[in-house]
C-alpha cells in the first residue's frame, strides 16, 4: 500500500482517481483548491500548508500544463527522496518534471478520454532508470482505466498522443459528420444518431471479436457494383480518406512536438 498525492483533481484526474480508489488499496490524498467531490477514503487538502507533515511515495500531476511550473515546486518537498513523480499532463516533458524533482523517478501517463469510463488507452513512458516496483505500480494504476501501451522514448509518447490522446476528438467529429449526412438523407436527428452510433458500435464489436484483418472485413461487406462499393468509392476511391487521416495524425504529432 503506497501513499499517493494527486495534484489537481478536475475532469481527467477525478475520473482516474475514482478508478484507482475503487481498484487499489493505496492511500490517496488530493490537493486541489476547487474541493471536488471525491470517493470515500480519499483525503483532501486545498493547499500544501494543509498537508501537515505527510510525505508521499508517489506524486501524480493532473494540473493543466500551464500551472505546473508554478504549483508543482511547492509540493516536491512532500515527495519521499526515493519517491516517484508521475504526470498525465499533455505536452509537459519528463525532462521538465525531472528538473523539478531531482533524484526522483519520472513516469508520464498519457490517458485518453474513454479512460473516464474505464475504456481508455493510455501511453506510459518511464524516463531514465526507474525501479521495477515503480513502473509496475504506475502500470497497475493505468490499467484501472483501460488498456496500456509502453513506449521507450518521449517522441513516441507524442506520436501516441497524436493517435490515441487526440483520437476521441477525431472520432467525435467523424460521428458528427456521419449523423449530419444521415439527417440530410431524410432521418430525424434521433433516428440518425441511433442509426450511426448503433452501426459504429456493432461494427467495432465485430472487428474486436474477429480474427480477420480490417481489410478482409471490409471486402466481405462490399459486393461488386453494390451500395457499399458505391459509398466506398466516394469515400476513398482515390485514397483521399487515407490521405486525410494521415494528415490528421501528422498535424497532431507536429503540434505535440511544438508544445514540448
Ligand atoms: N481531459 C482529457 O481528456 C485529458 C486527456 C489526457 C491528458 N489530460 C491532461 O490532464 C490534465 C488535467 O486536465 P483536466 O481536463 O482534468 O483539467 P481540469 O478539469 O481543469 O483539472 C485541473 C484541476 O486542477 C485544479 N487546480 C488549479 N490550480 C490548482 C492548484 N494550485 N493546486 C492544485 N490543483 C489546482 C483545477 O481547479 P480549478 O478548476 O478551480 O482551476 C482543476 O480541478 C491536463 O494537463 C491535461 O493535459 C487530459
CATH top level of the largest domain is Alpha Beta
β-strand percent reads 15-25%
Largest sheet: 8 strands, mixed
SSE order, as H and E? EHEEEHEHEEHEHHHHHH
Q: In order across it, which strands form the biggest sheet?
A: 3-2-1-4-5-6-7-8
- CATH homologous superfamily (4th level) name of the largest domain: NAD(P)-binding Rossmann-like Domain
Low confidence ranges? none
What small molecules does this complex bind?
NADP nicotinamide-adenine-dinucleotide phosphate
Q: What's the number of extended β-strand segments? A: 8
Query: How many individual helices?
Result: 10
- Report the average pLDDT across residues: 95
C-alpha-based Rg, rounded: 22 Å
Shape: elongated
Task: Classify the oligomer.
Answer: single chain
Helix content: 40-55%
Amino acid at each position: 500500500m503506497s501513499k499517493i498525492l494527486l495534484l489537481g483533481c478536475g475532469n481527467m484526474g477525478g475520473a482516474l482517481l475514482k478508478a484507482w480508489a475503487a481498484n487499489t488499496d493505496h492511500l490517496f490524498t488530493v490537493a486541489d483548491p476547487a474541493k471536488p467531490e471525491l470517493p470515500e477514503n480519499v483525503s483532501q487538502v486545498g493547499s500544501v500548508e494543509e498537508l501537515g507533515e505527510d510525505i508521499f511515495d508517489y506524486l501524480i500531476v493532473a494540473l493543466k500544463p500551464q500551472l505546473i511550473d508554478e504549483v508543482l515546486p511547492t509540493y516536491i518537498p512532500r515527495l519521499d527522496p526515493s519517491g516517484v513523480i508521475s504526470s498525465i499532463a499533455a505536452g509537459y516533458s519528463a525532462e521538465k518534471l525531472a528538473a523539478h524533482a531531482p533524484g526522483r523517478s519520472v513516469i508520464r501517463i498519457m490517458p485518453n478520454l474513454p479512460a473516464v469510463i474505464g475504456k481508455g488507452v493510455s501511453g506510459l513512458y518511464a524516463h531514465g532508470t526507474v525501479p521495477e516496483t515503480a513502473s509496475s505500480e504506475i502500470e497497475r494504476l493505468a490499467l484501472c482505466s483501460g488498456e496500456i501501451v509502453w513506449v521507450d522514448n518521449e517522441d513516441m509518447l507524442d506520436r501516441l498522443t497524436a493517435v490515441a490522446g487526440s483520437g476521441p476528438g477525431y472520432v467525435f467529429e467523424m460521428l458528427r459528420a456521419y449523423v449530419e449526412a444521415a439527417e440530410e438523407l431524410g432521418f430525424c436527428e434521433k433516428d440518425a444518431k441511433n442509426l450511426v452510433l448503433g452501426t459504429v458500435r456493432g461494427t467495432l464489436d465485430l472487428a474486436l471479436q474477429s480474427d480477420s484483418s480490417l481489410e478482409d472485413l471490409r471486402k466481405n461487406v462490399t459486393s461488386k457494383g453494390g451500395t457499399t462499393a458505391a459509398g466506398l468509392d466516394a469515400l476513398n476511391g482515390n485514397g483521399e480518406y487515407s490521405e486525410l487521416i494521415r494528415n490528421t495524425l501528422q498535424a497532431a504529432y507536429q503540434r505535440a512536438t511544438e508544445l514540448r
